[in-house]
Specification:
Length: 281
């Protein structure tokens, strides 16, 4: 009986051993098959993955390159703008110095007089009265005073009419109530008067009946004034109408200023150096 039970246990162990071997064999077979399947799948998928990876890197590098290029362009623009500003400033200062000297020569201002040109920006113009007045961004705190002369380049454009703390109003030479003593190139003395015409036409009223004035002749301030020195350019004779006779002839004068595109003006400030020196003492 004992022998019989022993054989039975031996058979069971053999069966378990055989089953384990079979399972191990099957496991190894399936594992190899799975590994082969994974290798095959990797072989198929890897080129696609590599392409996707390459595309991703290319997109990333391209994006970084574009951002870097835009940054370089922006820095280049900023440098160009700074360079342009610097050149404009140098050129502008040079023009001011030349204008200062030129005006001194034209007006015959002696060294006892200090000539100072102040640049002012036009910050308001009324479209309904373009040739009457405009506003500038300089006032009392900038040393602006009433009746100071206002130029556009070398051309007389008007005078300071009213002064406030941080802005002033310029009365234009082309306004209806503006009068200034003037003289033509042919030494004809007269008065330049503004008008209410929409194109800024000026009229020259001669003090004599001589007929020496011609179209195209330049007109300047005569110096017979407490405000305007001699030699400021006003404009050119544009038309002479003698239809009503020599006595009542009409002489039109046009200045060279482009009012619509005028953005800044020069304030002519004349100071006595002796007074300035005494003021400092």
């Amino acid at each position: 009986m004992f022998h019989k039970n022993k054989n039975s246990h031996s058979v069971k162990r053999r069966k378990i051993y055989i089953i384990s071997l079979c399972l191990l064999f099957l496991f190894l077979v399936f594992k190899g098959a799975i590994n082969q399947g994974i290798d095959l799948l990797s072989y198929i998928v890897f080129p696609v993955q590599r392409k996707i990876y390459q595309i991703g890197n290319y997109v990333k590098e391209t994006k970084e390159a574009v951002i870097s290029y835009q940054r370089v362009l922006e820095e280049n623009r900023e440098l160009k703008n700074e360079h342009i500003k610097y050149e404009m400033l140098v050129s502008y200062n040079k023009r001011l110095q030349e204008e200062n000297k030129r005006l001194r020569d034209i007006l015959g201002i002696k060294e006892e007089k200090k000539i100072n040109l102040r640049v002012a920006k036009i910050n308001f113009r009324n479209p309904s009265n373009l040739y009457v007045r405009f506003y500038i961004n300089q006032g009392k705190k900038d040393g602006i005073k009433k009746n100071m002369i206002v130029l556009s380049g070398e051309t007389l454009i008007g005078k300071i009419g009213r002064v406030y703390d941080d802005y002033s109003i310029v009365d234009m030479v082309t306004s209806e109530n503006f009068n200034v003593s003037a003289m033509t190139e042919s030494q004809m003395l007269g008065i330049i008067k503004g008008s209410d015409e929409d194109d800024g036409t000026l009229y020259f009223e001669a003090n004599t009946f001589q007929n020496s004035i011609v179209v195209g002749e330049k007109v300047y301030t005569s110096g017979i004034s407490e405000i305007y020195p001699k030699g400021l350019y006003i404009g050119k004779v544009s038309e002479i109408d003698n239809s009503d006779g020599e006595i009542f002839r009409s002489i039109k004068v046009k200045n060279d200023v482009d009012i619509l595109n005028m953005t800044e003006v020069l304030i002519l400030m004349l100071e006595d150096k002796k007074e300035e020196k005494n003021g400092k003492i």
